[in-house]
Amino acid sequence: MSGNKVSKQKSCPHCKSRSTAAPADACTIHYEQFWLYRHCSSVQQRDRQAQRAGQLFSGLLAMNVVFLGCAFISSMIFNHVAITLAEVWILLSILKVLCLCWIIYYVLGTSRQPHAVLHRDPHAGPIWIRGSVLLFGSFSILLNVFHIGYSTILIHCKSKVEILFPSIEILFICTQALFLWHHSKDCIQVQHNFTRCGLMLTIATNLLLWLLAVTNDTIHMEIESQLREVEQRFAGNETTSCTCPNTTMCKVFQKGYILLYPFKTEYCLVCCSMLYVMWKNVGRRISHHHVPHTKPKFKLQGVVFGPLLGAITVIIGICVFMMYQIQITSSVPSHQVFVMYYSYYIVLLPLMSMGAVIGTIIHALEKRELDTLKNPTRSLDVVLLMGAALGQIGMSYFSIVALVATDPMDLLNSLILSYSVLLIFQNITQNVFIIDGLHRQHFVAAAEARHPRQAGQHTGASELPSEEETTTSSQQEHTQVPPGKGEEMNEGQNHEAYNQRRVSMLELGQEIRKVSLSYIHSYSNLSWKRRALREISFFLVLCNIILWIMPTFGAHPVFENGLEKSFYGYSTWFVIVNFGLPLGVFYRMHSVGGLLEVYVTA
Fold first, then answer.
1. Which among 66, 97, 341, 529 would be 20 to 30 A from 175, CA to CA?
2. What are the C-alpha distances in Å from 228 to residues 32, 225, 255, 480?
3. How confident is the model at residue 333 (pLDDT cuts 50, 70, 90)?
4. DSSP character for 156?
C-alpha cells in the first residue's frame, strides 16, 4: 500500500468485531473517496485563494491612492504655483469623506450582520495603544481648533478651505478614534473584500495625512516672514504679507498650533498600525488554543531600582529640557546649551544599552519556550520597531559623515559624534531585547500563585489580625466609658476624640506595614532572573518616555545646532530631519508599549 493512501486512512471501528484474518484493505476507510472530504478540501483551498486575491486587490488600491497623494504633495513642494496647498487639502478631504462613509457603514451595517464578528483577536488593540489613540486624537482635535481660530483671524488673506479642511479633519479624527476603540479586535467574517478595501483606503489616507504633516511647514514660514516684515518696517519699507497681528489671541493660536503639531503625526502612525492589524484579521478564525486563559495584568511588583533610577532620569531630563528651551529661544543660543543637552544623552544611552544587553543575556539563560503561534499584532510590532528605528539611525549616519568630514576634534562636534554612535547602538540593542521578549511564552506561575497565599496566611495573617484585635479592643474600651457630667463630660469627649485620632494613626501605620510586607514578600518570592527583567524593563520604559517627551515638545538640536545644516544645505537637511524625527518619536512611543509587555510577561 502506498504512503499517500496510508496517510488518508483510518482504522474502521467495525473491524474489531471481525476476524483477524480479514484483509487489511477491508478494515480501512479511504477518506479521499468521500465527496464531503473532497468538497471541504476544495472549499478551504478556494477560501485561501480568495483571501489572497482580496488582500492583493485592496493593497493595490491603497498603493494607487498613496502614489496619487504623493504626486500631489511633491508637486506642491516643487511647484507651489501649479499645485497649491488648498488643492492638496481638497484631495485629502475627499478621501476622508469616503473613509467616513465606509466607517459608518461598517459600524451600522457590516458589524451588525448575523455571524459577522464570531472571533476577536485578544492581542490586537491593547489598552495602551487604544489609549494613545484617544490621547493623540484629542490633541489633534485641539490642534485643528487652533488652526481654525488662526485662519479665522486671518480670513482676509486666507482661503476658506483652511477653515473647511480642519473642520472635516475633526470629524474624521473623532469617528476614527471611536471606531478603533470599539472594533480594533474584530475578526470580521462577512463582506471580506469590501472591508479590506475600506481598511486600506483609511490606511492610505492616514499615511498621506502623515506625509503632509511632515512636509508642510507653513506656520513656521509665516513666523519667519513676520520677523522679516518687522525688520523691513524698521527699515522703512512697506510689506503686504499675510502675518499674524499683534494680538494675544492670534499668538495663542499660533504657538498652540506649533506646540501640538507633533501629536498629529503620532496619531496618524498609530492609527495606521491598528488598521493594518484589522486588515490582517479580516476573515481570520481563532481557535480556543490561541486565546489565553489568563491575561497578564500590569502590577507594580518585583521592581525597586528600576523605578528609582528611571525617576531620577526623568527628573534630570525635564530640567535639561527646560534649560534647553529657555536658552534656545534667545536671540543667540550659546554652545553650552548644546553641550549640556548632548552630555545628558551620552550618559543615558550607554546605561540603556547596558540594560538591554543584560536583559537579552537573561532571556538566553531562561528555559522558556518560544511562542510560535500566528499573531499579526506581534509581527506588526516587530516591523514597526525595526522600521521606526531607521529614522534615528539614518539621521545618525548622516551626522557621522558630516562631522567626520569637517572637524571631529572640536568639543561640540565630538559630543555629537559620540551621541550619534551611541544612539545607533542603543536602538539596535533595545530592539533585540524587546523582540526577544515578545516572542517568549508567558510565564505561568501556578506554584508561585499558591505560595503567596500560604505565606500570607502564615506571616501577615498570623501577626496583623492580633494587632487589629488589640486596636478594636482599645476602641471598645474607650467608647464604652460612660461620660460624666459638666466639665467631666467635656474632658471625656476630648479624651475620646484624642483616642480616636490615636487609633486612626495606628490603623494607618498598620496598613502601611501590611502593604510593605506584602510588597517585600512578592519581591523576594520572584527569581533573580524575573526581578532583573522587570527592573530593566521598567527602567527602559521611563527612559524612553523622557526621550519621547524632549523631541515631541520642541527639542530639535539636530536642526538648531547648524552643523549638519551647513554641511548638507538647508533644504536637504530639512527633509532628512522632517522624515527622521517623527519616526524617532514614534519609535520611542512604540518601544514603551513593547517594554511594558515584556515587563508584564516577565
1. 66
2. 82, 5, 18, 83
3. low
4. T
Helix, strand, coil shares of the chain, percent, nearest 5, are 80, 0, 20
Residue 169 forms part of a structural domain? yes
Q: Both 69 and 109 in a single domain?
A: yes
Instruction: Single out the residue in 291, 314, 339 at which a domain terminates.
Output: 291
Asked if 440 and 363 count as a contact pair (C-beta separation under 8 A), the reply is yes
Which stretch of DSSP H or E encloses residue 9?
Answer: strand 9-11
Residue 566, helix vs strand vs coil:
helix
Between CA 15 and CA 25 the distance in angstroms is 11
On whether both 348 and 324 belong to a single domain, the answer is: yes
Per DSSP, 553 falls in state T
* Same domain, yes or no: 261 and 344: no
Residue 152 lies in a domain: yes
Nearest to 94 by CA among 192, 139, 161: 161
Handedness of CA 116, 96, 173, 585 (dihedral sign): positive
Do 547 and 416 lie in a common domain? yes
| Domain match, 145 and 224 both | yes
Query: Whole-angstrom Cα distance, residue 191 to residue 283?
Result: 9
pLDDT band at residue 423 using 50, 70 and 90 as cut-offs: very high
Bridge partners, residue 11, by sequence: 28
- Decide if 272 contacts 207 (C-beta within 8 A): yes
Domain that residue 556 falls in:
306-459+514-602
- Grid cell, residue 100, equals 467616513
Given 291, 321, 350, the domain boundary residue is 291
pLDDT tens digits for range 157-180: 777 788 888 999 999 999 999 999
Domain assignment present for 300: no
pLDDT (tens digit per residue) in 515-528? 555 555 555 556 76
Looking at the structure, do residues 225 and 145 belong to the same domain, yes or no? Answer: yes
CA pair distance 501, 494, nearest whole angstrom: 11
260-294 tens-digit pLDDT = 887 888 889 889 988 988 888 888 777 655 555 45
Beta-carbon contacts of residue 590 (< 8 Å; ≥ 6 apart) = 381, 384, 385, 388
Instruction: Return the C-alpha cell found at 524.
Output: 523576594
Residue pair 599/537 in contact (Cβ under 8 Å)? The answer is: yes
What is the C-alpha separation between 523 and 303, in angstroms, rounded? 7
pTM of the model: 0.70
Query: What does 318-378 look like in DSSP terms, one character per residue?
Result: HHHHHHHHHHHTSSS--HHHHHHHHHHHHHHHHHHHHHHHHHHHHHHHS-PPB--S--HHH
Cα gap 177→187, rounded to integer Å:
18
- Residues 498, 501, 506, 507: what is their CA dihedral angle, to the nearest 10 degrees? 140
Q: Which DSSP letter does residue 13 get?
A: G
Domain contains 471: no
Give the number of domains in the chain: 3
Backbone angles phi, psi at 28, to 5 degrees: -125, 150
CA 342/CA 416 separation, integer angstroms: 7
CA atoms within 13 A on the CB side of 282: 28
| 3-state secondary structure (DSSP) of residue 287 | coil
Residues 22 and 128 in one domain: no
